[in-house]
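Reopening this one. Same input as before:
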Amino acid sequence: MASAETAAEHERILREIESTDTNCIGPTLRSVYDGQEHGLFMEKLEGRIRNHDREIEKMCNHHFQGFVDSITELLKVRGEAQKLKGQVTETNQKLQNDGKGLLTSMDELRQCRLQQRNIATTIDKLTHCLPVLEMYTKLQEQMRTKRYYPALRTLEQLEERCLPQAGSYRFCTIMAENIPRLRTHIRDVSMSDLKDFLESIRKHSDKIGETAMKQAQVQIARDNAVTSQQGSASGRRIRKEACSGTEVDRTESNPFTEQDSGILDVEYDEEDEIPGAQDLVDFSPVYRCLHIYTVLGDRDTFENYYRKQRRKQARLVLQPHSNMHETLEGYRRYFNQIVGFFVVEDHILHTTQGLVNRAYVEELWELSLSKTIAALRTHSSYCTDPDLILDLKNLIVLFADTLQGYGFPVNQLFDMLLEMRDQYGEILLKKWNQSFRQILDQDNYSPIPVASPEEYQRIAGQFPFQDPELEKMPFPKKLPFSEFVPKVYSQIKEFIYACLKYSEDLHLSSTEIDDMIRKSTNLLLTRTLSHCLQYAIKKKNVGLAELVQIIINTTHLEQSCHYLEGFISNITNVPPDTINATKLYGTSTFKDARHAAEEEIYTNLNQKIDQFLQLADYDWTAVQGGGQASDYLSDLIAFLCSTFAVFTHLPGKVAQTACMSACKHLSTSLLQLLLEADVRQVSMGALQQFNVDVKECERFARAGPVPGFQGDTLLLAFIDLRQLLDLFTQWDWSTYLADYGRPTCKYLRVNPHTALALLEKMKDTSRKNNMFAQFRKNERDKQKLIDTVVKQLKNLIATNQA
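Same output, byte for byte:
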């Protein structure tokens, strides 16, 4: 069984060897040697080889004759083949010789065809590359000449159209890699130019604003000239415009046209046309940067940056210098910077699409307006010079008109000017207070002497004075008032002119201007001039003659008030009889001053009388009175006579009141002198001397030192004293006590208290004068009588009190 399997295996291996490539029989032979029957296999292999050899031999014997025949035929053909080979070789040699030129031509043709193809390919490639190179050259030239916006457009065409068509060449790759860097460079450079532009307009906004305000001023002057030519040229023309806040069309009213632009150095003469903003400012950096950022798709970033920087510049522009209030030039620079800032913003608004919008500009203007008004209120409050305030007002009006020409609402500025009007009025009042005081201090309080008609006309031109009687008098003559009347009147007119100057160009109606001037003039009259007059009246060492002249002066000033009314109406073109017209208070002012002067005259007279009374030296214990009036009283009467002689120019009632007041004060003072506590005893002789003095006073009153008194009216000033002295000198106590309290009483003006006080002094005198009076019957009777009268007076007083 095992041998059969071995034989089958060997048979399989032999078939495998016969059918397998010799390179792959290694594993087959290895399986033979791995087995135990390789000897048997070798025997079978040798037997198989012998079988194949026998088959080969049989095959060779079968085909040998044919092989021999074939060899014989082949040997016969060899000669022919050799001949044919020689012919072919010869023919080939000829063909090779003849084909060498053709091959050369063909090779040349091939080279030409190759060159032609290469040239065509090169031309085609260059056709696509040349636009790229030309575009890149153009880009480099634009970058070199700083034409960044066209360069950005060129860069966009290069990237989107030229480079994709050119293909993937190395230079194209380099160009494509440089494009982002070029864009960044263009953006950075344009932003740098914008920063330079912003810095430049910040530094030169003063010059821009100055030019804009000059142009507005020229335009306003032209408009006023045209208006004055078209309208009637009578009087001062007051312009009224409705500042309603409605915006003017900025495009039409803008004094500056649109044009590109840093700051350009433009020289101009005053006679030349004033340049506009486009002549001073190069706006191209803004436009260029805006276009560049728009192309780069980053417009929002640019807009935000521009607005942020301009807001910062606005805050710097709106910050005034600390000493701005000292000079008008400080205010002018401040306004120029603000106007320059908004002229630039207005130009940007109208020459760009959306870089700044109307809402942004209006918001910026509202902020600026509030800060400007606050700064002006603060700094103008430090000003004490009315001329500077007036110049500032004119500058603010020009500032407002300039910006209003660009469509900015400026109502708040005019409202602030109306507020400043009160401050201006206060400063004017302070200035005129000094002027009035200087006039009053320098006045000689004497009537003005006039030596010639020219001098008379000169004064009449300063002050509206009319006196037909005085005009008929020959020269030289004297005007009734002193120098301060025409000077004060002229100063009042100057004040009115100053108020009118401030009210001009404030867009106020004639009625409003008239009302403002009248109110300010009333303040001048009732406050400033009134205080100055009171000062002149109340100051020390003012004499009665000066007070009399003040009364005369104020009388004439009072009479001139209606001329001031007409003067104001003339310069404001408002009729004086307008329903709502404010009336001047000059009449009451001068009346009050005159009354104060009158009171001062009365006071001074009384003080003079008191000074004379201090010289009184009565001997209250005298036994017998003198027959003449006391020296002090004679001097006093002489003084009163000379004084009242000066009162001839005063109104009659003033002189009469002064005379009556002096007589009453003299009577009262004499009574007080008689009853004062220091006088402990009064003799009948002293009363007789006192009675002589009172009679002297009555003679003075009866003589009529001042005309106008009816009958013995002036004597009534001494009636109390007269009845008291008559009661004591006539010793008519029975009549007094019997008739006391009746209207027909002879001694109606005698007060029982006064009589009792004087009687007590006389009782003491009777007791002390004669130590032996008790031994004399008549003295004892008199003393008893005095005691009886004293007792009756006390009972009378007690009854009246009850």
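So the earlier flakiness isn't reproducible anymore. For the record, The chain has 27 helices and two strands.
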